[in-house]
# Entry
Amino acid sequence: MSVIRAAEIKIADAKKNGLIKGPVHLGVGQEAIAVGVSKNLQDTDRIFGAHRSHSHILGVDNDLHKLFAEVLGKNTGFSSGMGGSMHLVSKSKGFLGSVPIVAGTVPLALGAGLASKLQKSGDIAISYLGDGATEEGVFHESLNFARVSNIPILFVVENNLFSSHMHMSLRQPSNTINRFAKAHKIESKLVDGNDVIEIYKTSSEFIRKMRLKPEPYLIEAITYRWFGHVDWRDDIDVGVERSKKDLLNWKKRDPIKRLSDAMINKKIWTKEKQITLDSKIKELIEENWEKATTDDFPNKESLLDNVYKYD
Amino acid sequence: MFTNMIKTTYSDAILSGFDYLLENYSEVFVLGQGLWSPWYVGNTMKNLDKKYGKERIIDTPVSESACTGAAVGASICGMKPIIVHPRMDFMLYAMDSIVNQAAKWSYMFGGQLNAPVTIRCIINRGGSQGAQHSQALHSWFAHIPGIRVVMPFTADDARDLLISSVLCPDPVIYIDDRWLYEQTANLNPIKETPLDSVTPKCIKKGDQITIVGSGYSTLLALRASNKLNCNGICAEVFDLRVLNPFNSKNILDSVLKTKRLLVIDSGWKTCGMASEVITSIVENIPTNTLIDPPRRITLPDCPAPSSEVHEKDYYPDEEKIIKFINKFYCF
# Structure
């Protein structure tokens, strides 16, 4: 979680300073979800993300250099510099793609689970989506299809209460979305998205069951993003409700600090160790950032490459 | 030898393409609405569910978007899925999975992954079915880089291009036309052909005018050219076969010879495939090559009418084509 946090803070700073061209959707404050889920995954599982997916890919592939290179558009990045922050891939770790069309990857993850079932591989599919994506029709189609065809897919809904600038209360008649799982007879659990242990335990239980018997499950994790929808700003005033007070309250529920404090209380961790860890991570970030900045951009001649596989 | 003489219909040829793929490639599976019922797909998938099992031939809920997306996702994971849309009009629910996802999966990830899905959709029109049960949207899809668009005209192509489409590492939209289902041919033995080697094909030789069609409009072109023969006009007929990426070379060579060009398309006029064919020829030939200006016969720019009175005027037929040629071309 600390590595993901530090990487995104670095990206936020770089974006603010004009070093990154494309938009970056930061998930600072939401790290516990990807970390808790990823602990249960293997390289052959099939993971699909969305627009805010730095944590999802780092959860299974912590190659900071590749993430930094990708957001900088360098050919050494996760997507060979062709994707940027919004299109990330790590095939060898089972992260099969993240894209910024809301709910766009939900049916793709469904198909990945269907493929796994037909291949009898025992692998599962993970579909990360936000609360906004639950307002897309294809999400409901996918829940239905997953249920009637018993597809091994875990829908992980990161409910950070906002879709872009709009609070959930302005978009849906209820503040939680696991009601949709109930409607489709999919077992689900509403969890504290800022509690990495709870997320780990819930996903662990669901994933263990899915591997034994292909079936869909859904986790709704309530959380909050510290930055605005896109880039580094707080977005506390974008014309609609997102108050500074709410933001400060949610910052008190920081998933990293909560874990660290709990471990210190239980005497399995110390403040000194946390300080040492943080400084090591800082070095790691700087080292990988430096390396990424010196890498090359894709060749100009590669503009038309990979439109088709047959060339 | 004798079996080679048995004529096969276009729709049976499609069925034999499915049969070949399911028999020889375990990663092939099919999903879509109506696959367990002849109501939707004619006999083109008859009994495949009984032969290969309902796990591989999946009749789905009424969810074009999720099912097409699922086919795309499965293709990214090593399968060769075929998603079937018994009527192209309903497939518009699935545009995100086709245009935003499948078409771009290879490019935006630097070629590390690809989506070798086949999207089979059927043009099913006429009989007063009206505006939402009649569309031929091949030109739309041909506009999108990253998707290959295939329209077979012959029964051989209906079978072999289905096989080529499914074995192709890129997403392919394979469009068959119900108005061709009863066409028959003596089928050649199956030959696996890489789709990128398939180009527009000359199906009738001639030297006075080049007529280009795709799918059903190639049949119209062929019928019209046979009538033109009676009038002493010798037309060369081309079938596009693959609309995107479009390779104009064979047609260009033909037009340099015939010096006249007519394109017949079963879609609309504006920004349609006919415009693309004409432009790609005209911009590559010397000025004054053409004896007559290049022309196109398309649907008029209006939705398909339900009234049978209007329907007769709406769709091109061979008589209209002959009249058109007599009006606009001088031989």
Observations:
- The longest strand of chain B covers residues 261-268.
- Residues 3-194 of chain B form a domain with the Rossmann fold fold (CATH 3.40.50.970).
- The radius of gyration of chain B is 20 Å.
